[in-house]
Predict the structure of TPR domain-containing protein.
Amino acid sequence: IELFTEATELNPNFAEAYHERGRAKLLNGDKEGSAEDMKKGLELNPKEIQNFNGQYGNQPGGSTGNILGL
């Protein structure tokens, strides 16, 4: 998480860093923090929604839509 945070500080438009930090937060049980990062990643790169659906749909806690509040 720290490395992804550093990456977003160095490049605030690095969508994949937000995506991966959100994934790490989700795996650590931080659904709220995860959703914030995933939303930011999607704002920067809206085409990533298919990747989110594929990766997060099988995670504990529900689908991507549930995690993101969609």
Observations:
- The chain has a mean pLDDT of 82.
- Residues 2-68 form a domain with the Serine Threonine Protein Phosphatase 5, Tetratricopeptide repeat fold (CATH 1.25.40.10).
